[in-house]
Amino acid sequence: MSLSLRVAAIGLFFSFSLYLLGEKVEGNFFPYGVASGDPTSNSVIIWSRIESALPSLNVNYEMALDPSFKQMIKKGTVNTSLERDYTLKTDVQGLEPATIYYYRWSWNGHYSPTGRTKTLPLQAKSIRIALASCQHYGAGFYTAYRYIAQDNPDFILHVGDWIYEFPVYATTCARPDPVGIAVDLNSYRAKHRLYRTDPDLQEALRNIPLMAIWDDHEVQNDYAGTALYFYNRERMRAAYTAYFEYLPVREQKEWKLYRSFKIGNLLELFLTDGRQYREEDIGHPATHPSLEDLLQVSAPGRSMLGAEQRNWLLHSLKSTQSLWKFVASGDMMMEIKRDGKPLNLDQWDGFEWERKQILSSIQQNKIKNVVVLSGDSHIFSFGKLIIDGEQVATEIGTAGISSPAGKIADKEELLKQNPHVIFTDTDHRGYVLLDISSEGIDVCFYGLNTVLNPEAQRILLKKFHIPVSS
Ligand SMILES: [Fe+2]
């Protein structure tokens, strides 16, 4: 070994020893930034991850009304360890409604970046939501999040495909994904870490709280929870464990993810889980369904949500006092047909019976102002959810942050064959911005001119106004 190498090795050993002893050493201990999520009117989840070689350590957090932490509100300590991949997460309680808070984590004199978050109001005149989904790291840069941060929404609503379990699309690779295919706890964690290195995503999460649900790629393409539970339970558990470690979502019992948020009398948001309790898809979604397949999609009782979640959703939609009712769904609910047959049975088109239960209940109970917010399709869409010829809800679909459009490429054909779809854009990635008030909703579909480099320009593709219905 040369002298310089020996000196470097001794230096590394010395730093590492101090590190183990808990002494202060230089370096970025919070390289994945900070995040907050699931705000209510009096609580919010805060998140980070610390780099450490200790088996277990206590990390402090502080929350204040100002970014210089002079008006301190809360202080606490969270224990983390190798067991939970050094992720940090706590539910800060006892906060005031509609208030901006600043927070940071610290260990042994090392501070995380300062995060900013906001609790939900008890009463609201208006609320702004950025709708996001589908962020394949290899397929593109997350420039959309830079524009989302500039729009300063009250929160980001992410409707799934936060990570993709497989690396890159061969033809549209924007950046390498060294993790490869995630199959176990270590590789799902590595995937979450990789995705969180994107500076635009980090900055948006540092400034704006997140509400998230998963779709399929947080685990495996097009999986159905009830089937995967039997043939690869370990993989499902590994993916769910990593998701709950890395996302600032509130933890409930037994991996339960569906939940709701009430924003005064203006809006109640129902976040659904379309994967965990799903029955297996019929046929292969990429192939055209047979006549036999089509009979099965309408089989009574066939479910994407599972009976318990479906009953919760139907009951909640009926009983809410809020003016607007938003249903966040990983998959598109509108019928999408090509040559008279459903295009993708992995979407709600594969669960015809259950979709009918939901739409009929909205119709029969005269529930007004229902909006479904969906992802998965990788195209922008705006259209009507119809039952017995009557529109009972509106659907807004987002194309996603970076994942390319696959099956639906011909926009003109899609509109011609599906007249309930009022608008679609299959050419751009981006997000949807919603400004909600008691008068109506302004919906802006924002696309990016490219996701192949991080300096993309934002384009307003289309704007809609949904008037309130009385
Ligand atoms: Fe996706």
Automatic annotation (TrEMBL):
Residues 33-119 form the Phospholipase D N-terminal domain. It comes from the Bacteria. Gene3D superfamilies: PhoD-like phosphatase, Purple acid phosphatase-like, N-terminal. InterPro entries: Metallo-depent_PP-like, PhoD-like_MPP, PhoD-like_sf, PhoD_N, Phospholipid_Metab_Enz. Pfam families: PhoD (PF09423), PhoD_N (PF16655). Residues 130-443 form the PhoD-like phosphatase metallophosphatase domain. This is Phosphodiesterase. It comes from Methylacidiphilum caldifontis.
